[in-house]
Known about the structure:
- By secondary structure, this protein is an alpha/beta fold.
- It is 32% helix and 18% strand.
- Helix 3 (107-120) packs parallel to helix 4 (144-157).
- It is elongated, with a radius of gyration of 21 Å.
Amino acid sequence: MITVLKSTATPEQREHLIRWLESQNVQVHISEGSEYTVLGLVGDTGHIDIELLESLDMVDSVKRVSEPFKKVNRKFHPDDSVISAGGVPIGGGHFQVIAGPCSVETREQIIGVAEAVKASGATLLRGGAFKPRTSPYAFQGLHAEGLELLREARAQTGLPIVTELMNMRDFDLFADVDVIQVGARNMQNFDMLRELGRTDKTILLKRGLANTLQELLMSAEYIMAGGNENVILCERGIRTFETYTRNTLDLSAVPVLHELSHLPVVVDPSHATGHASLVPSMAVAAAACGADGLMIEVHNDPIHALCDGAQSLTPAQFDALMGQVRRVREAVLS
């Protein structure tokens, strides 16, 4: 249920109403808009008298929310959320690019790529220290050493780091990671989501291989229900019957998610297509359709990459792409 307060409501009236609502055993989520204050009520609201609320002079309207996701819902938070990623704002008109290799391999590799992508305009550095691989014999990442190399790259370049957490037993190693990525395979790891909800870490939540948008939003709801509202959604393609591309990039997800939710939406065209030649077109299209950011894989030597070299751009290709993205965004925003 949401209760929209009039702009004329005084702070004292608002606090009195909030205390009364909380006494009805519901959580009250407060969203300050430019013209209205929205009170989102989470819990068993069936016993709350809508007509009584509507009769109050300070109340503009009262509605029941039919969707199962509440705190994620734009009805609860009409304005776009701006999420801080290591001090870099994402959402609400702040467009950011996350770039870097699929996996951290060596000190020279991660620092060299970090310096290159920053020079081209990237604002966050991605890199996997723990890698979920289909084959148990494939490179699984450098683990703690990889995290240390990411920290070194951050110290060298100033770029906040984004890296994937695969298991909560490793959470202590992520204490100073700026953005924790929850990968597609863990999107419905509800125990992990609950635990992350108890932290104040910014979470980049990737859509699962075969999950609906409602399921993605419900996973975000798990995190936010725990008290952590620092969530960024990521569309990275879904599995369809098409085999030419690694996945099928669902760009319609961007406007749909913006319609349903106030959370920022980032698009990962690298994992979606699986082919470096297709990444620029899909990245530009994502920027044109309103994405709040991009996540691009960049490697200094893709042919010899230990993971996902086929979908990685070289630093020179990434630099050219950034020029395209800037021009498209200027055209869309003009």
